[in-house]
Amino acid sequence: MAKLSVNINKIATLRNSRGGNNPNVIKAAIDIQNFGAEGITVHPRPDERHIRYADVFELKKIITTEFNIEGNPKEQKFVDLVLANKPEQVTLVPDAEGQLTSDHGWDTIKNKDYLINIISVFHKAGIRVSIFVDPDINMLIGAKETGTDRIELYTEGYAKEYAMGNKQQAISPYVEAAKKANELGLGINAGHDLDLNNLKYFAENIPGLLEVSIGHALICDALYFGLENAVQLYKRQLM
Ligand SMILES: CC(=O)[C@@H](O)[C@H](O)COP(=O)(O)O
Ligand SMILES: NCC(=O)COP(=O)(O)O
């Protein structure tokens, strides 16, 4: 059964909107783990629009599950933050600073030498590495050559097609990518725009899926169902 890592970026968005400490991001992370999440994911961006670098140090103290820190390692501040906190996993995402959100995976062929070097830095620190990729067979082959432990399949394309009712068209590139990742010996994570409607079908069809990281939709659902119910509802889609 794939593990659920809850991305708490949007809890920090709400907190930052009023300048205080409500909602308390640290308390939320403790509670989310107690509600059954198997991991906490954060994506501290250079502009600190939601998760702040200081949050990461405080979160590290209370993580009892798996800590997954996402970001672009071309920001030295991000690399230093990860090495200082030594999470179980770092997920490398090629986002530019001004992006609204993550919207593409790595070109693992053009960035091969760079990724080999930066992945070895995190490996020397004992940190598992996952790299964010599109469901493109050539990018998976390139990912294998970088030495990464896992790939994270970027699932916005799946979510969009699924929402239009094109289930088979939505899932097939990801099934092919997962088969290739399994053949290459790459661990499979997935994330971005997964939600209560599309998660079960995705998880049932992706062979070897280890972990999904879900944030935006889960936090939105929590506004209606409550945070504990939301975590439980998402976990139930993975059973
Ligand atoms: C890598 C990924 O797809 C998400 O974790 C993304 O980082 C979410 O970032 P925002 O919460 O800033 O949209
Ligand atoms: N890596 C994906 C993630 O952490 C959360 O993405 P989203 O659910 O906020 O789209």
TrEMBL record:
Pathway listed: Cofactor biosynthesis; pyridoxine 5'-phosphate biosynthesis; pyridoxine 5'-phosphate from D-erythrose 4-phosphate: step 5/5
Keyword Transferase applies: yes
Example GO molecular function: pyridoxine 5'-phosphate synthase activity
SUPFAM superfamilies membership: Pyridoxine 5'-phosphate synthase
Active-site residues annotated for this sequence: 43 (proton acceptor), 70 (proton acceptor), 192 (proton donor)
Keywords (A to Z) from UniProt: Cytoplasm, Pyridoxine biosynthesis, Transferase
Subunit and interaction comment: Homooctamer; tetramer of dimers.
The protein's name: Pyridoxine 5'-phosphate synthase
Organism: Ginsengibacter hankyongi
Gene name, Swiss-Prot/TrEMBL: pdxJ
